[in-house]
Amino acid sequence: MKRIDFSRWGRDHTRQGGAVPYLDIEGEDDPIEFLFRYKGEHQLIARGNLQTCKGREKMGKSAAGIMLIVAALGGSFLDLQPQRGDLSVLWIDCEQDRATLRKRAKAALQMAGQASTIDRLKICTLKATEPAQRLETALNAIKETQADFVFLDGAVDLCEDFNDNKAAAKVVDALLKATDEANCSILSVIHTNKKDDEARGHLGTILQQKSSEIYEVSKAGDIARVRQELCRFAAVPDIAFKFGEAFTIEPAEGSGLTEAQAKRQRLQDSFAKLFDEALEYTYTELYKAYAEQEAKGVRAAKDAIKAAVEAGVIFKNGTKNNTRYTYLFPELTEDADEVQGEDCTDEI
Fold it and tell me: Among 26, 33, 124, 290, which is most exposed with the fewest C-beta within 10 angstroms?
């Protein structure tokens, strides 16, 4: 084994690139600053951190980010309030054409009660930018604007190959560095896999690992729901909204879910993923598949099956020794908490 003679380095030796960033344990830090609060008490989007917003196609991921933009610019929106009244926003879009993006931006300003232009909002469109230049351009925009909140719609387009580990790590590391240097929050949008609803590719995996908060967006009917999946800080309840005309977002009042309906919605979301892969399952196949997908134990998986049957999310067919479970994508209704299915305690 080759041994390194550290004595040759000298007392002032540092690694290439500058001094080693040792932590002064006795130093004092400012408390974590959150850019927004929900219903006056739940704090979210921590400054100096990276956040991820994930979901399948056409679920409302972009709308979830725009919802925060409207709150930042307008002072309040859908029970969301900025912690300060002067938050600046950088909206980086990698997917939409300029005409569509301009319409969405005007709709956001209208919802915020602002004029057609406002100094606190800058929009950077990268669709026409060469793929190899998108990351650098996005980083330059963050540096130039010094925005408090950065909404990155289409993080995958900053990566030359989102399935390449090195390319993905390069993008995420650059975004993390930007949050520190600009003292901002970056909310990155990324699609999920159909099989397991994990953020797509190596880029998605690393984004989730490095994010302080992870949000998942799902949709039932015309109601979109933003669920905080993981957070290093305090939990935030689900945030619901519905889609209006001309790119507007509206409150979900009158269509909101009761506690029982919200539980049913979570069950529906989980079992829908399983039945993308098969039309029916035996009991054993179903609890094993659920346990693997949700990273749960057998008991938790069996409890979830029982709850899903009772809520009318999945259905039992056949005799006890030849039971099959199916899923029919039921719509949520106001009396969903009263829906009962056949008890499956004989198999639990």
Answer: 26
Alpha-carbon distance of 120 to 338, in angstroms, equals: 48
Query: CA–CA distance from 314 to each of 89, 223, 311 (Å)?
Result: 43, 21, 8
**Total-model pTM:** 0.69
Measured CA to CA, the distance from residue 184 to residue 34 in angstroms comes to: 10
pLDDT at 9: 42
209, amino acid identity = Q
Give the distance, in angstroms, between the CA of residue 93 and the centroid of all CA atoms in the same chain: 16
Q: Which residues have a Cβ under 8 Å from the Cβ of 161 and sit 6 or more positions away? A: 167, 168
Describe the strand order of the beta sheet including 34-38 as a list of residue ranges. Answer: 42-46, 34-38, 80-82
3-state secondary structure of 138: helix
DSSP 3-state of 315: strand
Q: Say if residue 148's pLDDT is above 70.
A: yes
Mean pLDDT score, 178-191? 96
Residues 6+ apart with CB under 8 A from 22: none
Name residue 177's amino acid.
K
pLDDT-derived band at 323 (thresholds 50, 70, 90) equals: confident
pLDDT at 228 over 70: yes
Q: What SS3 state is found at 36?
A: strand
Pull the structure tokens for residue 263.
Answer: 């539980």
Burial class, 341, CB count within 10 angstroms (exposed 0-12 / middle 13-18 / buried 19+): middle
φ, ψ at 324 (rounded to 5°): -125, 145
241: enclosing H helix or E strand: strand 239-243
